[in-house]
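[job 0412] stage=complex_fold ligand=adenosine-5'-diphosphate status=START
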Amino acid sequence: MSRRLHFLLIDNDREHAIRIEKMIQAAHESLQLEFVTSLNLGIERLAKGDLDGVILKPSDNSSHNTVLELRAVNREIPIIVLVTQGQMDVVADSMQQGAQEFLIEEQVTCELLLQIAKHAIGKMESLKTLEATKEQFRESDTRMRAVLNASLDCIITLDTEGDILEFNPAAEETFGYPSKDLVGRSVCQLFLPGENSNFPIGGLKEYQQYGRSPTIGKRIEVKAVCKDNSVFIAEMAIHPVPLEAAPIFTIFLRNITARRRAEERQKQYAAELERSNRDLEQYVSIVSHDLTAPLRAITGFCQLLQIDYYTRFDEKAQECVTFIVEGARRMRTLIDDLRTYSRVTTKKKPIEHVGCQAIVDAAVKNLEIEITESRAEIAVEDMPEVIADKTQLIQLFQNLIGNAIKYRDQREPRICVVAERGECEWIVSICDNGIGFDPANADRIFEIFQRLHADETQYTGTGIGLAVCKRIVERHQGRIWAKSIPGEGSSFIFTLPFDPGE
Ligand code: ADP
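[job 0412] stage=complex_fold status=DONE, emitting structure tokens
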């Protein structure tokens, strides 16, 4: 059963009000009527709430601002005006002020009153929904406008003909036009004439005819023209907005000239760097090759001096010859190391499937003398299969294990070679219990000729070994780094990509 409606009758004529109240009470259960005899009392009662509507009988031939006064107290209450047959102007006036319905006194019946009360309530509900929708629309419009205004990209809205409807602040700044100068004008004037500047219109027409177009909904690169006729490279996309009446189109556009220039510059730098690296490698390779022959002659003749003339030399001369031989030996090592360094890229071999266990075995075999002399113990665990240049990988392990043996203290070297499966690559570590180094130098030691322990009598070397390791690892798309606690040991860690076939 529906709820009993509670209405307030505002009627200056007490007798009249009582008559209507009685008529309602006698005949109808669904409507409860309460009356007051002045507008002020009505406003007071309305302020207390708990009413479903008001029936207002204007006191004279005009409603003055009575409905407005009631509305000021309650914006949502349905209001019905009760008039006599000749008061249609009062009805019009009241409706304008916000009344929902009217009743003609001479025709009032209980049934009619109830019906009109329900209509008034229904109308008020629709009005509320409409207001709420309008409010939502206003909010979403405000939000959209805020996005348009704050956007760093140019946002340009077009109608179906390609005429500009909206031009946001970013577009104003980029193109140098105030929005009012462009609204209503064709978008084509924003693109370089001659370079198919008509393409947006063509795209819009094609889209409307066939529902698609190669220029709609895709990222394209164009040349755009500013008000001062300067041209810039723009990346843009035109998106259709399907509205009920006719679609509109939104252009999102960004000036990418600076990005393009930076990319061009980067490409140039990369090419220059590659060229200069190639030149340098070639230079190193030629120089080391050309130095080998005279050096071999020096070593050979010195050895001859040592064998054939040694006994004829006094002590000072013998010492000098020994220095020359030793110097020549060191120079030979340096040339060999430099050549190895340059060969990482010049003499690279094709990448193939290799098992790291076999690689480590080969490296250990090459270090047999050092291992025996130092009584080093090397534990190797979980070596993976990888895709690599076998010779270079042997070199990599040999350099790192060789260093782990070389940079030892009085303890016998304990070296551990382990591989772990990372998220997207193998992580290989070579850990030792040697002298270690200051971790502040962890990056520097991978640079060519950088040596931390330069005491030649104790630790011979050229400072090229780790630079070679870095080149090899990077050629295999990996990274290499080191950790250490001085006096406790070091760990050299590098990554290798997974075998793609795995
Ligand atoms: P080299 O051994 O010929 O000096 P490297 O490039 O192989 O050249 O190494 C550079 C420097 O890094 C070494 O001089 C040494 O100071 C330090 N280093 C390398 N490996 C180790 C290690 N396992 N323990 C301590 N220091 C090391």
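The chain has four domains: 5-131, 151-255, 264-346, 352-497.
[job 0412] exit 0
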